[in-house]
Amino acid sequence: MNTLNKDKNTVIIHGECMVFPSELPKTATPVVVTGDYLIVADSETTGNHHVVDNYQGVNFFKSSGGTMFMQNTKPTKIRCVMADRHDAIDLEPGTWEFGVQQEYDYFTESLRAVRD
Amino acid sequence: MIEKLTTEQEQRLSEYAEKWIQTGINTDRLDPDRTKEIVNAYQREILQMKETEVIITQNPIEGWVATVLLTEGTAIDKVLEELEDIFSDPPRLNKLLKDNPPVYPYQDGAFYSSVISFYDFMINEVGIDMEDDLRTRYNAWSDTTSLGLMFPLDEVMVVTEKPLEIHFNEENQLHAEGAPAIKYAGHGEFEVYLLNGVRVPKWLAMADDADLELSQYVEIKNADVRTEFVRKFGVERMLESYGKKLDTFENYNEEWWNKSEYELWDMNAIFDGVSYAPHLKMKNATTGVWHVEAVSPECNTLRDAIKERLGGRDLQIQAIA
Asked: In chain B, what residues touch A7 (CB-CB under 8 Å)?
């Protein structure tokens, strides 16, 4: 398992999921997570969701534009439901933003979020 | 309060895991008498209802159609005959399924093996005790893992057979080349196609590698399915036969670009009427499997392509998995 810092202008890539050190937007609202983890990039067809473990001290938020954020006072990790696909990566305490990488569709001539 | 397993208990976890994996993937045909015993115990102890007859169907589609027919009034002793009729009449079958979209059943038999494995270990190895009444109920519940899906109705229980075949690769991922990875007997062609654990279209699982065409690759919308196409087609065959290398990680001093062996290739040959179609080739840092993903014609260098992949942000990658 890798451990990472919170340098600005950096990104962690976990499959198609991106994790950025960030700041929480003022408009962000808390996301109530009752389970053991939150899906931060879902897999519509394979079920291999990218998830972040939900411990005490880990809080999730969503911006008005729908972007997911996390503030954690304790380390957590991003991992895959199917653990053999991508190694887990530790996320040190801080504020993190989640996104999905882009790919280009030559039929529609447009960018879109990578789907799996 | 038990807070920690002993070393001996931990050592036995894998034994229980294997035992219940084998239960979950068991493909033995159901014995009618034993099935009725299990169903009746389940009805008596768990559902707390009267014991009923049992109808065994060959697969989940048959099970659902039988359940619908029974709820619509088909007699229990006529339902298997009616199943034959309806599966030979596609318009009627399609209407039934459209009017009654399949619902996952109340109890899912062998698919529940993973849950039962937990209780089995806790009872037998950790020594969790239970009263006789609860033990009887637990046993009735646990025994259902030797069955397929179970659709309980007031006057009858519809039970499905388990898959006829289940295939895995060396990593124990569901996988079969040239055949369904999961195949049931009976009507409805209940087959599931997977390559290396990824559900793929039938044509991709069934095709010989040599018969695959790149025109099929560009039609695939799902990244995992595309990766399986690349794996089957062969990344070297795909890029070196149809592409032109534009840029490589070797031109940069970027740790993670190096580790992922990022390269930019022009793949315009696979698109009609497209003069420039850059694609990013990269290696999954965990599995070592190659991915090939399209980037826009705006990308002339690897740096352009990676920036675009990252949503237009010029960022340093500090880890990839």
From this structure: 316, 318
